[in-house]
Amino acid sequence: MISFNINSLVIQLKPLFYFILGIVFYSIFIFKFYRFLATKDLLKLDLDRYNNVEHSGLKKFIKAILYPFEYMIVIPVFIFFWFMVLTTLLVFLAKNPVIENILLISLSLVASVRITSYYDEDLSKDLAKMLPFALLGVFLVDASYFSFSESIILLKSIPSHWVLLLTYLMFIVILEFILRIIIGTYNLIVERWF
Fold first, then answer.
1. Would you give per-residue pLDDT tens digits along the chain (194 residues)?
2. Do 35 and 132 touch, CB atoms closer than 8 A?
């Protein structure tokens, strides 16, 4: 006869519950992450709508200030934030973590996602979700891959690479600026000639 013990059942199901909860939260986070990062127009701020100046010359001057502010400061800060999120994921799930390599891989992926978002947002979304879900797959197949204590030590070492981080932030600003110039020029040509 099989005896039913609720305590042993709870003990057996507890790890299952934690794994399911972790996978669900991670998946929702990555879903939000890749949809946000892969969108050509990350923020629909449209700061120009707050430009209520009547004088046309002053209005154009303010617009000329707001546009670079949005695309050279606000959006790169958001992109850099997602770069740091991806870096954190890679730190926790990398087998032999070297912080310079992790930062390089993270920025390469983020920059590639931003570039492809100007070409095709669906391609960009696929690219943005590829690595985070691959990391989840690796973790699920081999949970011993993960070393929490080593990852925390590595995360604490990131600020010591501030020169590299600042260089990468400047790269993101310049990249987003160049992409905006290219798309703006393309749109002008298409509107004028086609």
1. 566 688 888 888 898 999 899 999 999 988 888 888 888 776 665 555 666 666 667 767 766 677 777 777 788 888 888 899 889 988 887 777 889 999 999 999 999 999 999 999 899 999 988 888 888 888 888 777 677 788 888 899 999 999 999 999 999 989 988 998 898 898 888 887 76
2. no
Q: Which two tokens stand for residue 122?
A: 């669906």
Residue at token pair 């701020």: 45
131 contact partners, CB below 8 Å, separation of at least 6: 86, 90, 109
- Entry pTM: 0.76
SS (H, E, C) the chain: CCCCCHHHHHHHHHHHHHHHHHHHHHHHHHHHHHHHHCCCCCCCCCHHHHCCCCCHHHHHHHHHHHHHHHHHHHHHHHHHHHHHHHHHHHHHHCCCCCHHHHHHHHHHHHHHHHHHHHHCHHHHHHHHHHHHHHHHHHHHHCHHHCCHHHHHHHHHHHHHHHHHHHHHHHHHHHHHHHHHHHHHHHHHHHHHHC
